[in-house]
TrEMBL record:
<dbReference type="GO" id="GO:0015920">
    <property type="term" value="P:lipopolysaccharide transport"/>
</dbReference>
<protein>
    <recommendedName>
        <fullName>Transport permease protein</fullName>
    </recommendedName>
</protein>
<dbReference type="Pfam" id="PF01061">
    <property type="entry name" value="ABC2_membrane"/>
</dbReference>
<keyword id="KW-0813">Transport</keyword>
<feature type="transmembrane region" description="Helical">
    <location>
        <begin position="54"/>
        <end position="82"/>
    </location>
</feature>
<feature type="domain" description="ABC transmembrane type-2">
    <location>
        <begin position="18"/>
        <end position="253"/>
    </location>
</feature>
<keyword id="KW-0997">Cell inner membrane</keyword>
<dbReference type="GO" id="GO:0140359">
    <property type="term" value="F:ABC-type transporter activity"/>
</dbReference>
<keyword id="KW-1133">Transmembrane helix</keyword>
<dbReference type="InterPro" id="IPR013525">
    <property type="entry name" value="ABC2_TM"/>
</dbReference>
<keyword id="KW-0472">Membrane</keyword>
<feature type="transmembrane region" description="Helical">
    <location>
        <begin position="169"/>
        <end position="188"/>
    </location>
</feature>
<feature type="transmembrane region" description="Helical">
    <location>
        <begin position="134"/>
        <end position="157"/>
    </location>
</feature>
<feature type="transmembrane region" description="Helical">
    <location>
        <begin position="103"/>
        <end position="128"/>
    </location>
</feature>
<keyword id="KW-0812">Transmembrane</keyword>
<comment type="similarity">
    <text>Belongs to the ABC-2 integral membrane protein family.</text>
</comment>
<dbReference type="GO" id="GO:0005886">
    <property type="term" value="C:plasma membrane"/>
</dbReference>
Length: 261
């Protein structure tokens, strides 16, 4: 596993002048774009109450770095088997390690980005309390979720070529189905607020494991955004269900995948 992770990182940046800096530049540029659109052009009154004393740049950066791990993990793990067919058919190892190694490789890039988020927290009035422990908790939950998704997509992408296009669509949908670039309060609203979305929609929205994960990532630095225990439990439970489903799908499809490769 460690060898595959190191090889993946080395191959990805071997011909690049900036190397690992791209793992920081890409999310920072995206964060700048979203900050300009949602923090400047479409700034709405009331955001200050949702974010406390923290600035919107801290909110967007803490969300984007976590999202980039999710996005890259899904996209690259989907090709983990189809892109390494010769290695997979000749090595006598558990083949689950190929998509899982993609998830771990992208987690390294996320860890490299944490010091950048720390700098933003210092500049934009982030909180430095015990709530920073939410970051490793969020990483564990997100890692379990990503591995489950990877174990589903990797074999299906070998058997059904439409999965590649579907993966791109899934990533786009997930980006806006979780509070990555907008506060959760924009969806949940205040109790009794006539402008709030229907209760059934709010419940379904919070069933998305990414919602609790992103709230942990934001709440580690921004005090008012720390999620409830119920939301964290829902996120952890959903991630575990996806993980179990992924392991089952991979085992069922493995023999068919080997024939196809």
């Amino acid at each position: 596993m460690g060898m595959l992770v190191r090889r993946d990182l080395a191959v990805k940046y071997q011909s690049s002048m900036l190397g690992y800096l791209w793992s920081l530049i890409d999310p920072l540029v995206q964060a700048l774009i979203y900050w300009f659109i949602f923090g400047v052009l479409y700034h709405r009154s009331g955001d200050e109450n949702m974010l406390g004393h923290a600035g919107y740049p801290l909110f967007i950066v803490s969300g984007i770095f976590a999202w980039m791990w999710m996005s890259a993990g899904i996209t690259e793990s989907a090709h983990a088997l189809s892109s390494q067919s010769r290695l997979i058919t000749t090595m006598r190892v558990h083949r689950q390690i190929f998509p899982i190694s993609k998830v771990f490789a992208r987690s390294v890039e996320f860890l490299v980005g944490i010091p950048v988020v720390l700098v933003f927290a210092l500049i934009f009035h982030g909180y430095f309390t015990w709530r920073l422990l939410a970051i490793p908790l969020a990483m564990v939950i997100q890692g379990v979720l990503l591995i489950g998704v990877a174990l589903i997509l990797a074999p299906l992408n070998v058997l059904f070529r439409d999965v590649e296009r579907m993966t791109r669509l899934i990533v786009r949908i997930l980006m806006y189905s979780a509070p990555v670039i907008y506060p959760l309060a924009r969806v949940i609203g205040a109790p009794g607020d006539p402008s709030s979305l229907p209760g059934w929609f709010q419940f379904l929205y919070q069933c998305n494991p990414l919602v609790g994960i992103m709230e942990l990532q934001h709440g580690a630095w921004i005090a008012p955004m720390f999620p409830s225990a119920q939301l964290v439990i829902m996120s952890a439970t959903g991630s575990l269900i996806v993980f179990i489903l992924g392991w089952w799908v991979f085992n069922r499809a493995e023999s068919a995948v080997l024939k196809e490769l």
